[in-house]
Amino acid sequence: MKTKVLKASDVKRDWYVVDATGKVLGRLASRIARVLIGKHRPQYTPHIDSGDFVVVVNADKFRVTGKKMKDKMYYSHSMYPGGLKKINLELMLEKHPERVIYHAISGMLPKNRLRARRLKRLKIYTDASHPHSAQSPKEIEF
């Protein structure tokens, strides 16, 4: 028997739409990361970027469990002394709701050279409409 190894020229990318309404943030992010990596395909090969495009709609309507709305913090640093900035999930949702899902998915992707390429295939929108209808994306339910 021979093992079929996927080549970069054999990759055919599909488009998927995910509605984030009422979904728990962490579970949603891990399942989207799995599709971006390509692990949902039977011909998954670790060193080939074989993932698909994912369009997330209603990105501001997810839910979190526990007290994460107040307790979960996002940190950034300006690299100057005293330049640490922190913002909790509640304020981040008011200012930049799409960044919350982006950070969650980004943290679940492997930290390697393929990460930036995979994140470019992630499209996040806060309303129910998106400009990718020409690609005829398939609706996936998590």
- Which secondary-structure class do the elements indicate? alpha/beta
The largest beta-sheet arranges its strands as 5-2-1-6
- What is the third-level CATH name, the topology of the domain at 13-63 and 97-139? Ribosomal Protein L13p, Chain: A
Which architecture name of the domain at 13-63 and 97-139 does CATH use? Alpha-Beta Complex
Order of helices and strands: EHEHEEHHHEE
Low-confidence stretches: none
Q: How large is the radius of gyration? A: 17 Å
N-C termini distance: 35 Å
How many β-strand runs?
6
Bin the helical content: 25-40%
Please outline what is shown here.
It is built from five helices and six strands, in the order βαβαββαααββ. With 142 residues, the chain is an alpha/beta fold.
Would you kindly provide a written description of the structure presented here, covering whatever features stand out?
By secondary structure, this protein is of the alpha/beta class. Helix content is 30%, strand content 18%. It is built from five helices and six strands; from the N terminus they run βαβαββαααββ. The protein has helices at 25-37, 68-71, 89-95, 97-108, 115-120, and strands spanning 15-19, 53-57, 73-77, 84-88, 122-124, 138-139. The strands form two sheets. It has a four-stranded parallel beta sheet with strand order 5-2-1-6. It has a two-stranded antiparallel ribbon with strand order 3-4. β3 (73-77) and β4 (84-88) form a beta hairpin. α1 (25-37) crosses α4 and α3 (89-95) crosses α4 (97-108).
